Amino acid sequence: MDGAGLYHERQCWELCAVHALNNLLQRPQFSKQSADSICTDLSPQSVLNPHRSVLGTGNYDVNVIMAALLSQGLRAVWWDRRRSLQCLCVSRPVGFILNVPSRVSLGLLSLPLRRRHWVAVRRINGPYYNLDSKLKSPVCIGGEEELRLFLGEQLSLDSDSQLLLVVSEEVEEEGSWLLTADGPHVA
Question: Which entry of 12, 51, 117, 185 is annotated as an active-site residue?
Fold first, then answer.
């Protein structure tokens, strides 16, 4: 917990997917062991599991995140970055998970390598927060328009940056995370 009463796990090894999930859920729901178990369930016959680092330090892929969310009754909806963020009904998702480029560093030394990093964003008690595990504490983003700006900036960092909307099964089925001219889309 940070000073504002928000749950916030800090980066450890390559466990950003676990931290992003827990920060999004605002509780310590997942661990390295539970994420490794999900990897085994996804590829039970694999000697070298394709869903995590060969070294066993984490670096979990999107399949692990999606399976973890399913275990909590949630769904991940991939945001098509060709769509304007103005079409996003930001109040419908439980939160957001970004996959963005991140520099690799050893202490104060920044290496010329880039890895992928999972980041959670969620509305808590009014404003939206950046719950990135690489931050010392959560950073307040603000309201809906500030969130759209933040998400747009993150997606523009790299052409491979991705955004997942974390939604309930009902919101996924309705498609109500998408705004139409008449309001949230309902299938």
Answer: 117
